[in-house]
Specification:
88 residues; mainly beta; Nucleotidyltransferase, domain 5; 11% helix
Length: 88
């Protein structure tokens, strides 16, 4: 079941996690994929794997990819000191 921002309830969120096999990828820009979980009422209701292999080190492109999938939160080990994140 797919959701868009307009349908997400107030107590819902999509969390993006850069992965490297079975662990959180410590280098956000080197992530080949992201796990995006949809959480509603404190329960995971959907898990999606999104490929990012063509966007290595393209932080803006990665951010746009995640926003395009509705992610509002990113859990990662680090993004790098030179990058300035802004709301898309």
């Amino acid at each position: 079941m797919a959701y868009d921002d307009n349908e997400m309830e107030e107590n819902s969120m999509k969390i993006a996690i850069p992965n490297n096999g079975n662990i959180v990828n410590q280098h956000f820009g080197m992530s080949k994929s992201f796990i995006i979980t949809t959480v509603e009422n404190k329960k995971i209701i959907q898990v999606e794997v999104v490929s990012a292999s063509e966007l290595a080190h393209q932080h803006q492109g990665l951010a746009e990819l995640l926003v395009g999938h509705g992610a509002t939160v990113v859990i990662t080990g680090g993004i790098g000191g030179g990058n300035r994140w802004r709301r898309l």
